[in-house]
Specification:
Blueprint (H helix, E strand, L loop, with lengths): L1 E5 L7 E2 H8 L4 H10 L2 E3 L2 E2 L5 E2 L4 E5 L20 E4 L3 E6 L15 H9 L4 E2 L8 E7 L5 H9 L3 E10 L6 E5 L2 E3 L7 E3 L7 E9 L3 E8 L6 H8 L21 E9 L6 E5 L3 H14 L1
GO molecular function, one term: pseudouridine synthase activity
Protein name: Pseudouridine synthase
Function: Responsible for synthesis of pseudouridine from uracil.
């Protein structure tokens, strides 16, 4: 693998060692290979770890197969991969409801396998959506960018906007749900609001009030398992079609959709704002609109 970069105009000057270890999170083993093989070049010249990098420097990095062994991913059906964005380092796909982000076994096919088939290369899971939730999912195309994207998620530098159709109406148009979430000891499938759980913060805005339901927009400061579903249940506004946390009702799908993902590209620093459409989500909301008339 060979990667070429031009350091952006607002790049903060730093040493090669700092860039690789602290900024780009390259593991120690791979940093050693780059140093020994002279596979880190600045303006076409091999440099030491002490070299100071500045804006507009041209960087070339070469990784051999032994440096980053490829992940073994079984290829799925490329026709099932709806690609919203792709570049040299990352890909964003639109996951339909009812499809897992990744399989639980090496032979189980999921979105990861279908995207790999479409790109003809393995992709790496950065985050996941519940099987019943649709929307934008981010994958890394190489192990070089994978830890960087992972840290960006941990630092809340990758933002996801969700929409949900929920039961009832809200007194406030905007609210923040700040309730810790932990595992339900009585049902291993579920999470619950718990004083001993991990911090979880969800921001909610009401978009539309229907006759009995509300269309809401949601964003997260944290990424706990089932966070939106648990928080909405806790404030007595469960999501329509949520058979695990909501009412046992007939709905075509869980009405939760990851509408948008926003991030600053870790290398180019370009702001990416990627929208994911969902015909099934929109069709169910259209039913609510029609019921108003």
């Amino acid at each position: 693998m060979e990667f070429n970069f031009v350091l952006p105009k607002d790049f903060k000057s730093q040493s090669v060692a700092h860039l690789l270890e602290q900024t780009w999170l390259v593991p120690r083993k791979q940093r050693h290979f780059l140093r020994m093989k002279k596979h880190f070049l600045v303006n076409d010249k091999a440099v030491s770890d002490d070299e100071i990098l500045v804006s507009t420097d041209r960087i070339k990095i070469i990784f051999d197969e032994e440096d980053f062994p490829l992940l073994a991913v079984k290829f799925g059906d490329e026709k099932l991969a709806d690609i919203l964005y792709e570049d040299e380092h990352l890909v964003i796909a639109n996951k339909p409801e009812g499809m897992k982000t990744h399989g639980n076994t090496k032979d189980e096919l999921a979105l990861q396998n279908h995207v790999a088939a479409r790109l003809n290369q393995p992709v790496y899971v950065v985050h996941r959506l519940d099987e019943a939730t649709s929307g934008a999912v981010l994958f890394a195309k190489n192990q070089f960018v994978l830890p960087i994207l992972g840290r960006m998620f941990e630092n809340n530098e990758i933002h996801r906007k969700y929409v949900a159709l929920v039961h009832g109406h809200f007194q406030q148009k905007k609210l923040t749900i700040n309730q810790p979430i932990g595992r339900d000891r009585h049902d291993k499938r579920k999470q619950i609001v718990s004083k001993t759980g991990k911090a979880a913060v969800t921001h909610l805005s009401v978009l539309t009030d229907f006759r009995q339901h509300s269309l809401v927009s949601l964003s997260l400061d944290t990424g706990r398992t089932h966070q939106i579903r648990v928080h909405l249940q806790a404030i007595e506004h469960p999501i329509l079609g949520d058979l695990l946390y909501g009412k046992k009702e007939h709905e075509p799908r869980l009405m939760l959709h990851a509408l948008q993902i926003v991030l600053q590209h870790p290398f180019s620093e370009q702001k990416l704002e990627i929208l994911a459409p969902s015909q099934s989500f929109d069709a169910r909301c259209k039913q609510e609109e029609d019921n108003e008339n």
